Amino acid sequence: MSARLQARNLSCERDGRMLFRDLDLAIGPGELVRVEGPNGSGKTTLLKILSGQFDDYQGELRWGDAPLSRVREAFLSNLVYLGHATGIKAALTALENLAWYQALAGDTGSEASRLEALQAVGLMGFEDLPVAQLSAGQQRRVALARLELTPRPLWVLDEPFTAIDKAGVAALEQRLHDHVAGGGSVLLTTHHDLTAQGSVKRVQLGEGGDDVIL
Ligand SMILES: Nc1ncnc2c1ncn2[C@@H]1O[C@H](COP(=O)(O)OP(=O)(O)OP(=O)(O)O)[C@@H](O)[C@H]1O
């Protein structure tokens, strides 16, 4: 199985502090990679690098057989990135937020697909409320509905379980498992203990660039 996304000799320094050094990492079809480490160890920074959003690093990124920089558009069209912040627009309703995401992604989409995505994350009945009026967990669910909207193989998720209740955590874990079982790839950071379902590759970031790949 050839890896879809590969990082070789990846190093990153921020504010004079080495976050990680000479990191090798690969994520391919059917794999879930979890980046672990204490607060400030560089997990978000690594996810931003690996999703093409931050380029102040040393090392090489490859997508398939090509340097990522050469196939950036193709890479981005295969990716869903959900950041630490939900990235949703407070004044828009849940449905409008999803329409906005689809427009940004160049998808026409349909209201039926958006309603289906909201149903999958347990938000039926809340679709027409401005998201400012939703709870923190419901707002996170609006963001997570993006995973249902556009089928893309690579999911990069920064703390996706934040503010989600027990039932939502179980549903999201199942969703991640199904995506991987269907040949997708998931790269995530979470402080939440994942229920063991299939194999999880772990990347441990330490303080001062002391990194371990398990
Ligand atoms: N925008 C920024 N400008 C400058 N330095 C930053 C910036 N964002 C993060 N850093 C630095 O990079 C370090 C790593 O931050 P990062 O957000 O990647 O850590 P993290 O492991 O995701 O932490 P957490 O578990 O708290 O979310 C921080 O300690 C900080 O010093």
TrEMBL record:
UniProt cross-references to SMART domains, sorted A to Z: AAA
Tell me the ranges covered by the ABC transporter domain, including all copies: 5-214
Gene Ontology biological-process entries: cytochrome complex assembly
Keyword vocabulary terms for this entry:
ATP-binding, Cytochrome c-type biogenesis, Membrane, Nucleotide-binding, Translocase, Transport
Fetch the Pfam families from UniProt.
ABC_tran (PF00005)
A GO term for molecular function: transmembrane transporter activity
Q: Which NCBIfam families match?
A: ccmA, PRK13538.1
Q: Can you name this protein?
A: Heme exporter protein A
**Biological source species:** Onishia taeanensis
